[in-house]
Amino acid sequence: MRERNKLKMHDLIRDMGREIVFEKSPNNPGKRNRLWSQEDVLNVLHKHTRSEEVEGLSLNLPTLEDVQSKAFASMKNLRLLQINSVNLKGCFTHFSKELKWLCWHNCPLKCLPPNFHLENLVVLDMQHSNFRQVWKGNKVLDKLKVLNLSHSKCLTKLPNFLHVPHLEILILEGCTNLVDVHESIGLLKRVVLLNLKGCENLKNLPKSIYRLRSLESLDLSGCSNVDKLSEELGNMISLTELRAEETGIKQLPSSFGLLKNLKIVLLSGSTGQSSKSRLSHFLPWMSPKRSNPISLLPPSVCGLRSLTALVLHDCNLSEDGIPNDLGDLVSLEALYLSKNNFRNLPQSIGRLPKLDCLSLSGCTTLQSISELPASLRDLNANGCTSMERLTNLSNLKELRNLRLAKCHKLVEINGLESSKFTLYIQMQGCNNLSHDYRMSLLQVLSLSLSLSLSLCSRMLTFFFWSSH
């Protein structure tokens, strides 16, 4: 069982099951309860073989091919149907009313026909469809739990969700012509995942979307025309994951700190924001300084204590763009601050008790790194071209990977010679380190249990391996 309750089956078990099904009717595929071989499926469909036993049918065609719908008329027990790149011809009333899973990638239809009875459908997977709209009118699909319309590039609007009350997963990734989301989405009391990634023409979210109190994962990455989130965001109390990379969002609402279950936040590369405007409401203590020092304390810091990953890559963060009290995020394990414009890091980073990975690559104005937490295992400072000194690393007993390539001004790495557990060190282009220091470093670190060390001095690169 994988994340989000996905069940993965080993190929050997799958093949054993297929063999059992095949042996029940070796010569007549229409009498098997499952059909997966393209040859067998096309044989049954083109010959209109009676196939009352069939409960599951899978057909994946490389290019669009016509199939007559009446070929399914005898499949009264059909529950799972996969017909990718199939152009169905004829009346849709021939299909079984027992159908629970329909997967129809590259569907050429502009919308689902009204005589396609799907009242028992649980999963509708229509990726890469030609839909302009999903269905006309108010279609009743009160058992539907999953609706996947990914990469349906002609889709311009979503249906009324009034009659799909049990929907849990809505995937609209890559629907590049979608311009709005139907207001009725707020009626979905059970939805846990909403994926709008790459919906580049989506302009704003309906206010009703913030009533989705059951929503756990929201992906707005690539929605470049979405430029704000409502103050009502704080009502989404179940939210654990927010992905909003490459959006037009300039400022996060102050209610953001109320999302107490939030674990993962990705905000990299959003357009047109300054560090102040972007983060001033991300963490409440980023508000402008006041005369009363007590006001600097985060009033809702406890709301972010579940945060495990914070990605602020390429967000134009300057010196004051990182909160001084970042160390209060006690569950934080991964912090990505690459390609930003600050000169120093707040000392409070050293108080992050669970920080495992810190990425600062491409921070060309960063001058020094100090006060790193003892829990750190991976430090990436590649391309920090202004950095001259690195903190004392002797307390980093868990450090496994150290990346310092192209740190041209680096002259000193305190405590690295005391690190006996680091497995990988990358230092190409650190040409300001003296020759004597590099040689002594090689000699001392050769005592490491297992080490990969890459050094560069002008045109010469040394690769050194050793083990006890």
Secondary-structure blueprint:
Blueprint: H1 11-24, E1 34-35, H2 38-47, E2 56-68, E3 80-89, E4 101-103, E5 123-125, E6 146-148, E7 169-171, E8 193-195, E9 217-219, E10 241-243, E11 264-266, H3 275-279, E12 309-311, E13 334-336, E14 357-359, E15 368-369, E16 378-380, E17 389-390, E18 401-403, E19 412-413, E20 424-427, H4 435-445, E21 450-457, E22 460-467
Parallel strand pairs: 1-2, 2-3, 3-4, 4-5, 5-6, 6-7, 7-8, 8-9, 9-10, 10-11, 11-12, 12-13, 13-14, 14-16, 15-17, 16-18, 17-19, 18-20, 20-21
Antiparallel strand pairs: 21-22
Pfam family, one: LRR_14
InterPro entries: Disease_R_plants, LRR_R13L4/SHOC2-like
Keywords: Repeat
Keywords:
468 residues, mainly beta, 19-stranded mixed sheet, 3-stranded parallel sheet, 4 helices, 22 strands, repeat, Disease_R_plants, Disease resistance R13L4/SHOC-2-like LRR domain-containing protein
Question: What features would you describe in this structure?
Answer:
The chain has helices at 11-24, 38-47, 275-279, 435-445; strands at 34-35, 56-68, 80-89, 101-103, 123-125, 146-148, 169-171, 193-195, 217-219, 241-243, 264-266, 309-311, 334-336, 357-359, 368-369, 378-380, 389-390, 401-403, 412-413, 424-427, 450-457, 460-467. The chain has 468 residues and is mainly beta. It has a 19-stranded mixed β-sheet. Strands 15-17-19 form a 3-stranded parallel β-sheet, with no helix packed on it. β20 (424-427), α4 (435-445) and β21 form a beta-alpha-beta unit.
